[in-house]
Amino acid sequence: MRHALLLGLAAAVAAGVPWTQASAQMDDPVAAEFDKFREVLEKDNPAELWEVKGEQLWTTPGGPKKASLEKCDLGLGPGVVKGAYAQMPRYFADVDRVMDAEARIVHCMITLQGYELDKLDDKPFSSATHTPDPVSITTYVAAQSAGMKLAPPQNHPKEKAAYAIGKEIFHYRAGSYDFSCASCHGVDGQRIRTQPLPNFTKPEQAIRSVQGWPGYRMTGGVMHTLQWRLTDCYRQQRFPEPGYTSETLSALLTYLTVNASGQVYKGPGIKR
Amino acid sequence: MKLTTLAILAGGTVLLASCATGTGDPRAEALAMMDRDFHARGIASKDRLKEDAVMAACNKYNDNPPADVVARLQKEQLATIRYPADGKLLGDWKAGEKVAQNGRGMAWSDKGGVGGSCYNCHQIGPATTSFGTVGPSLYQFAKMRGFGTDIQRYAYGKIYNSKAFNLCSQMPRFGHVQALTEQQMKDITALLMDPASPVNQ
Questions:
Q1: ipTM of the complex
Q2: Could you write out the three-class secondary structure of A89-117?
Q3: Is A72 tagged catalytic?
Q4: Helix (H) / strand (E) containing A242
Q5: Nearest CB to A173 within list B38, B59, B103
Q6: From residue A245, how far is each of A165, A250, B110 by CA, in Å?
Q7: Cα(A145)–Cα(A44) distance, rounded to whole angstroms?
Q8: With an 8 Å Cβ cutoff, are B108 and A235 in contact?
Q9: Distance from C-alpha of B70 to C-alpha of B76, rounded to nearest angstrom
Q10: Cβ(A75)–Cβ(A81) under 8 Å?
Q11: Which residues of A touch B131 (CB under 8 A)?
Q12: Under the phi-then-psi rule, with left for phi > 0, alpha for psi from -120 to 50, and beta for the rest, what region is B52?
């Protein structure tokens, strides 16, 4: 069933059906088709494939140190995965900084399993032929918070600072086109071409920066995390590239997630 | 050079002199953090993180600087506009349509300036329904604003440097940052201004 749908989708994409033009125009038959695909896919979510792989990677000894990630502390104590994703980004005393989920997972892969950051961030994002391990693991971790309310803590001074700094970075205009995140995500009801742009400064729309991520992206058929989404928006913003799992991205994710606090996270999803 | 030392205030004074980690000033910490975290990729060099005087004023005043700052900086931006030496502002609207449609250019995945990405933000020609809404509709632009040389100059100038007319505009400065060539800007101006362009039907 899933394969038939994906094939149908692939065929539609190959035939040049413009998905990106669809969803803003609800009277458009292509948009209706897309929503039908998404509904059926959500019942049989392709993200589950990466969830399963991520769980294996979490529990199986690996890396130069031949250790599993089961002692990794995601903020709720070593090995506690349930609910952890919904309570990140957060401050971690061992590194004295705020980390988002993927940053923390990569940190654990380095400290517990002995991987090197240089290798992990060489090609950190998924392609048609390769899904990096942190992406699968983040998908697994995220799934263990499905149905829970987002509650990124704002207690430690560095957590409060990350929010304030993230807000500044969100509004910082520079680059060849003078854009900031807010140029595209700071006003209600705007579109780039026909892609709707959520206004992340508003709580009811900020949830869209978290909901459905990590997400199976129909364009290209790959699994992506928020590290990828933000990095690709910086490309569109005509900025240089932010470091993978850098504090800048954790600060932005703190700003976005705290804005969405209290709303229910549904787990890994599907993106256009 | 440190980004923080380059953040120049609208008034010309240096805003942040030194490394700002732990000062408790979110803006200073944000600048220091970005300076640490970003790296050049492809054509997107790291100095793109720097604000010029316009961006510094817009960032500092949340896109709403005091009137005197706006007046002074808009005048400076106006002075940057180089109108075509041959005095001809209108090129070929058909070529202009192609440049307006093309959303690529200046990103690290590009080789340089390519298109104007005008349809990303504006309705323009009637045939394209997949237009963005960040900017106002430009459909029937000259029909409504007039076909005269003054409006031609305004359209060309707006494309060249949008900030000369609206300091904290969300529209890029395509000529000023050399994202578009003079010929491309003439062609797009024709798309908006030529009586034969579908925009003005």
A1: 0.92
A2: CEEECCCCEEECHHHHHHHHHHHCCCCCH
A3: no
A4: strand A241-242
A5: B59
A6: 16, 7, 24
A7: 18
A8: yes
A9: 10
A10: no
A11: 193-194
A12: beta
Question: What distances in angstroms separate CA A133 from CA A98, A103, A139, one per listed residue?
Answer: 22, 13, 10
* Closest listed residue to residue A48, CA positions, set A143, A190, A122, A173: A143
Per-residue pLDDT tens over the stretch A66-116: 999 999 999 999 999 999 999 999 999 999 999 999 999 999 999 999 999
pLDDT > 90 fraction of chain B, expressed in percent and rounded? 87
Q: How far apart are CA A47 and CA B2, in angstroms?
A: 42
Here the CATH number for the domain that contains residue A178 is 1.10.760.10
Q: Which residue of A has its CA nearest to B168?
A: A178
Distance CA A20, CA A248 (A): 28
| A240 and B44 Cβ atoms separated by less than 8 Å | yes
Query: Which pTM value belongs to this model?
Result: 0.90
Judged against a pLDDT cut of 50, whether residue A251 lies above it is answered with: yes
Q: How far is CA A70 from CA A18, A37, A80, A88, A141, in A?
A: 43, 36, 8, 18, 12
Length, in residues, of chain B: 201
Write the CB contacts of A44 (distance below 8 Å, at least 6 apart in sequence). Answer: A1, A2
In this complex, is the C-beta atom of A55 within 8 Å of any C-beta atom belonging to chain B?
no
Count of domains for chain A: 1
Question: Which pair of structure tokens corresponds to residue A224?
Answer: 């992506």
